[in-house]
What does this fold into?
Amino acid sequence: MKLPLIGNTLQQLRDIAAEAGLRPFAAKQIARWLYTARVTSIDEMTDISKTARAWLNDHYTVGREKPKAEARSTDGTVKYLFTGAGGRDIESVYIPDRDRATLCVSSQAGCRMNCSFCMTGRQGFHGNLTATAIINQILSIPESESLTNVVFMGMGEPLDNIDEVLRAIDILTAPWGLAWSPKRITVSSIGKLDTLRRLLDETRVHVAISVHSPFADERASLMPVQRAFPLVRVLDLLRGYDFAHQRRLSAEYIMWGGVNDDLRHADALARLLHGLDCRVNLIRFHAIPDFPHGTSPTPVMEAFRDRLNERGITATIRTSRGEDIAAACGMLSGEKS
It folds into this structure.
């Protein structure tokens, strides 16, 4: 079985070049073809000898795979279906917005976190995506060349697949890779403490933490991982890092009518985040089957936002995108629309 080349770091490409009888500098040539020229076949690597290309063709493929299906929203959002892991497909979502073009990528097929309000969590866990599968989502959509941002907010908990996610971030940000600024990348997490520290220490990407309630018992009823990774401990860890300059921290807060959207919750959230350089993204809930709560009315969300701002916490209401194609927050299921 041939192995993919995309998803490999420069050191891994050096090892492959050595196997092919090439000098170490050939690794940078291969990386340039993969990540800058974005070739889809080894034969396009014209500054690699024919003998080496033949050997590479015998043992490797570029590893690019086109989406299996797509669904287009009336608001311009596009959801793409890709081969995932464990026999389950995964989805990524392209979101154009004026001068920004963001791709929301998946890092797992399914998810172990079991959040009650999330379609991905309802699936259970089927497997981690490789760095190859993560990078393929970025390189293989038609809008790839126009992307300005990538957010790890698709299917799965990125920090539950830390090694492959870090490898993908390395490829995105390294000068031999796509050479992106880390400021173009955001990783969202429930706050998996053991690997959150690695993300913070080994990268400079933006971080988003799923909060959804300032009260421990209530958060645990929505997100069972609260028991393993209490929010107060997550925030204590984050307080040890600088979010006042290049790196940004945000708190993700889905709002349910009559559940977590009153001013008591707003005041408690402001107390919890006090002294931390953090902005709050208020998110409309997008209905999924067999979940008992609906989204908060717009005036309630606006009052919640205003209360946070009055308390010195920057808060905004995130615009919903792609709900008509089941591409909005919490709706990804890895099934063809």
Remarks:
- The chain has a mean pLDDT of 95.
- The two ends are 31 Å apart (CA to CA).
- The longest strand covers residues 88-97.
